[in-house]
Design goal:
This protein has about 375 residues and is mostly helical. It is built from 14 helices and three strands.
């Protein structure tokens, strides 16, 4: 106990310097969702807050799990997630032309979201077990590539290019930080650039190619395929420095802005809160990601370092792609903004990442006891 027994040790040990700013970000997101619903807690704001506090409790539970348990569960959890992806192909719900969800009754689960943190976990376990002498051999690459190819292939069948890219990004971060030869990455990047035109015209679906063309010139079809990006940039630009004021966003309230509560929630926020609101969001994410990377650098072993860094970059990918998308700097790929967009699967994934980073921090603090 500390402070004369007022605050129990388990409560005091939580990283409140991260939890409190994160809670502020989620509450701010709920305020944006409240406004987007026309000044109502339903159907988005109240659910958003309830999910966060439920998943925050989950993250705290995850943070108490030992390092040994994390390692033991890595391959079984990966196998379960792959099974769920196969199940999606068999009985998954279809919406918007994609088959991505499983109806569990109490919630709709998107199993591909679970694979984002799990691919980091399973590869961290793989490279922790790999002898350092094999890091430069094919044995360091082929098994990892297989572990990645299976879920990515299943996600592409849904089809969901954005999520498959997120899974791939997290995996590549772990592979790179594991110390594989740099020329492998340079060679793979060169090959990807050379084959990109062929893949673009042969492997992508028509709507995916359209998104790329729209990204290059959204004004070419302002009322059709370019509508999302144009309305988003109009909303962000019209907010100015101070915004139009809480509840006064015309783009979202008059239904000009599509998906104002999910993929384009940042545009909804920027119209009403302006650049000041945008800076608060960016600083909050920067604070969270800085904490994650500092935790990774301070971690005592390879597994912990790869795990914390991979989880941090998984959150970073969400943030970077969503913000680039809503500002017209990247094609629209359907990736929500963490802790602000309405969506249970996304919130769950990101809180798993936060809980895992908290666990690594606890392992660093407790030292050898973390294995028990």
């Amino acid at each position: 106990m500390i402070l004369n027994g007022v605050i129990p040790d388990p409560v005091a040990r939580q990283p409140w310097h991260v939890i409190l700013p994160l809670t502020a970000l989620v509450v701010f997101g709920a305020a944006v969702l409240y406004s987007a619903a026309g000044g109502s807690l339903r159907p988005w704001a109240l659910t958003h807050l309830l999910r966060f506090f439920v998943f925050l409790a989950m993250a705290i539970v995850i943070s108490r799990v030992s390092k040994r348990t994390f390692k033991q569960l890595a391959y079984p959890l990966y196998g379960i997630a792959v099974f769920l992806l196969v199940l999606v192909e068999a009985i998954g719900g279809i919406a918007g032309g994609s088959q991505r969800w499983l109806n569990l009754g109490f919630m709709t689960l998107q199993p591909s979201e679970l694979m984002k943190p799990l691919i980091v976990l399973v590869l961290a376990r793989f490279y922790d077990d790999l002898p350092p002498s094999m890091t430069g051999s094919w044995r360091a690459l082929v098994p990892a590539a297989t572990l990645l190819a299976v879920p990515v292939g299943l996600v592409l069948l849904q089809p969901d290019l954005g999520t498959s890219l997120a899974i791939t990004f997290g995996a590549l971060v772990v592979v790179f930080l594991a110390g594989l030869p740099l020329w492998w990455f340079i060679g793979a990047g060169t090959a990807a650039l050379l084959t990109a035109p062929i893949a673009f015209f042969t492997l992508l679906h028509d709507y995916q190619r359209t998104r790329v063309f729209v990204f290059l010139d959204p004004a070419k079809d302002p009322l059709g395929s370019g509508y999302h990006i144009l309305q988003s940039t109009i909303a962000i630009g019209s907010g100015g420095f101070f915004g139009k004021g809480f509840g006064n966003g015309s783009q979202s309230h008059l239904n000009y802005l599509p998906e104002a509560h999910t993929d384009f929630v940042f545009a909804t926020m920027a119209e009403e809160w302006g650049m000041l609101g945008g800076l608060f969001v960016l600083v909050s994410f920067a604070w969270l990601l800085r904490w994650g990377m500092m935790t990774a650098r301070a971690a005592p072993d390879r597994f912990s370092q790869l795990l914390a860094a991979g989880m941090s970059f998984t959150i970073f990918f969400y943030v970077a792609i969503n913000l680039m998308m809503v500002m017209g700097l990247a094609p629209v790929v359907g990736i929500p903004l963490p802790f602000m967009s309405h969506g249970g699967s996304s919130m769950m994934t990101n809180m798993i990442c936060v809980g895992t980073i908290m666990a690594v921090q606890n392992w660093t603090r407790t030292g050898p006891q973390a294995l028990s």
